[in-house]
Every structure is written in structure tokens, then in C-alpha cells.
Amino acid sequence: MQLNVNGKSYDVDVEPNTPLLWVIREQVGLTGTKYGCGIAECGACTIHLDGAAVRSCAMPVSAAAGKRITTIEGLASGKTLHKVQKAWVDHDVPQCGYCQAGMIMAVAALLQDKPKPTNADINATITNICRCGTFQQVREAIHAAAKA
Length: 148
Ligand code: FES
Ligand code: FES
What we know:
binds FE2/S2 (inorganic) cluster
């Protein structure tokens, strides 16, 4: 099966029902996308599929064939950070960092849909779990990125 990841084409030899997350990590070799729960609850594995945020642990790889997959490694434009990444750095958001790639991907998709999200929008959409409790900094950084 052929996958398009961050603008590059990859031929992968996997069962169609293999979780997309594992294919991204094991076959494509991009390990920025993390495994947390495996049941679409925590958001650590969030990527973009044709620009929409999806939780890749609970999605069969076959669902991604023919679509544009973007991972955290493909979010920046060359050396220029995405505005969400920049806001994350400016606001010292990450603690251990484990949840953060998924968090950033979810936020980037939110700002695409709603360039000026309210706190209610953020609460409704950014349901990613952070065991380090960075939620306050996440919210501040989202508002900063929305103004950038
Ligand atoms: S690992 Fe996919 S949502 Fe938790
Ligand atoms: S920064 Fe540690 S889990 Fe979120």
C-alpha cells in the first residue's frame, strides 16, 4: 500500500487493519507521534489526515491510503516553526513532552477551523490528556498562536 506522509510517498507492506500509528512509527520511521492509550482517548497519537486531526492509534492504515498524512515532523515549513510550535516554545508549554506532539497537531487543526477559538471551543476540541498538567499553558499558548 502507498502512503503519502509529509509530502513524501512511502510503500508499506502491512495488513490493511494495522493501526496507522504503528505504520507511521515502525514502517515509515517517524517516531514523533506517540502511543499513549491505544483506544482513541488520550490524543498522544494525533496526526492530520487531509488537514483534519485524527487519532492514529484507532485508525486502520487502509483508511489513510490516498490521503495526505501530516505528522509533527511535517508541521514546520523547513526551518520555520508552525505558529503553534512557536507559541509552545514562547510559553514553555512542554513538561515531559510525551503528549505534546499530539497536543500541537490537535491545536493546529483547531486553529485551521477556528482561527480565534474561545475557551469553550478549546475545552470542546482539545480533549488531549496531559499527565504533567500543562493545560493552563496550553490554553495561553493557543490564544497566543491565534493572535500570531
Ligand atoms: S494513543 Fe491514540 S488516543 Fe491515546
Ligand atoms: S507534558 Fe508530560 S504528559 Fe503532557
